[in-house]
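pasting for the record
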Amino acid sequence: MPMSEKSQKPHDRMATFLAADMLAVNDLIRTRMASEHAPRIPEVTAHLVEAGGKRLRPMLTLAAAHMCGYEGRYHINLAATVEFIHTATLLHDDVVDESGQRRGRPTANLLWDNKSSVLVGDYLFARSFQLMTETGSLRVLDILANASATIAEGEVLQLTASQDLATTEEVYLKVVRGKTAALFSAAMEVGGVIADAPEAQIRALFDYGDALGVAFQIVDDLLDFQGDAGAIGKNIGDDFRERKLTMPLIKAVAKSEAEERAFWERTIEKGKQTDADLDTAIAYLHKHAALTDTAVAARDWAAKAKSALTPLPDHEVKHMLNDLADYVVERIN
């Protein structure tokens, strides 16, 4: 590999390799997000779709299809489907979380309103189902429909678990596997299915996506307490202010003493927070090595993702996926 390629980030190398396909995916997205009767739909969708995201999930679908030797055209449909599902969930999430910033820009619900965000999200879900049915594969439809349901299930579980100090890491992982990892694993899996890959390879694709998605979310939750606001596109401490019990907080609460427990009950369960509480929360996280332990967990999941690649064909994309798992956790170094 030339030095210029080695110095590139894994997702950038993947984007270069998949450039022609991604152009086709982006063209299809623009075509299908159009609406003859409701111009607000493409306005809201374009605000998020064209906000500079890495398009990681659709690239995973394309990468899986290429690695498994697919030569047809429906991987384009499936990649666009995955991006529509992802965009729809982001629109809905920002309403639920009352977020004001996404990818460093004002959220759609802030620029327009909650109703527009919810309804445009619904429209994108409908468009995604149109795209996936065009492949003629019932198995693909089953995988992506199940992923959509699992994402919603994970979000609802988070509503009930995120402010309950009894929430365990096991419950947290159920939430993460639902709201984040489900789309990563489905994006990989459908790439193998459309290529008619052997079942062992399809399972490996699912396992890689699942583990990568969990690692990705754990890192995001960790960066909420120690990242750079400009780099992560949101304010430091947003999860704490929104009273979300993520892995770092769960680890700290589990080791908390009486005074600390009272602090968590006030700030998380009762939602009575002051401006100084974030600094106190971070101090408790450091006291109990919660951030360090969370970083270890993220690296463990990244290692699981890399291990899952073993049964897959030797392909340059496979090496990119291996490096991608490393890169996800390198963000916390």
